[in-house]
Amino acid sequence: MTLPSLYVFSALTGCRLSFAAVLRLLVATVVVNLAVAASLGPILAFFTLSTTSYPFMIVLNVGLLGAAGFVALGFLLKVLRQLSDAARRDAIADAEDEGDPATLARAKAEPDSTYAMFYIWVIIYGLVGAQMGWLLRPFIGHPSAPFTWFRARTGNFFGAFFHHLSELLGVND
Question: In the chain, at which end, N or C, are there fewer CB atoms within 10 A of the end residue's CB?
Answer without folding.
Answer: C
